[in-house]
Specification:
The protein is built from two helices and four strands; from the N terminus they run αβββαβ. By secondary structure, the chain is of the alpha+beta class.
Length: 109
């Protein structure tokens, strides 16, 4: 058995002796990458909400406060928003003249 506090101290000491180097990304599976400007950052004690304007699209990202601080995110920061989702919701817009029609297939045939 190892005391938890002692293990935590050991891990912190080791981390400060052998820092992790950050290499540039050489590949990524996310294909939806949008360049944008940070328009607002709302921080609390644990999380931060980061609003990004990417062309005509407003994106909202929830990140840890630590990450937002480490990246020095602030309004005006240039960022790349990488979006990878396992679920994508699709909706059919209502077309003019179809106010009472609830059958989407009727509009295509």
């Amino acid at each position: 058995m190892v005391d938890g506090a002692e293990l935590a101290r050991f891990a912190q000491e080791r981390a400060s002796v052998e820092p992790v180097t950050r290499n540039p990304v050489v590949g990524q599976s996310a294909r939806n990458r949008l360049v944008g400007l940070v328009t607002n950052v709302t921080r609390d004690t644990v999380m931060a909400q980061v609003d990004v304007q990417a062309g005509p699209f407003r994106l909202v990202s929830l990140v840890s406060r630590e990450a937002a601080d480490e990246l020095q995110l602030q309004p005006g920061s240039l960022v790349v928003a990488s979006v990878k989702a396992t679920n994508v919701v699709l909706e059919l817009p209502r077309r003019a003249g179809s106010a009472g029609n609830t059958d989407p297939a009727a509009e295509f045939g």
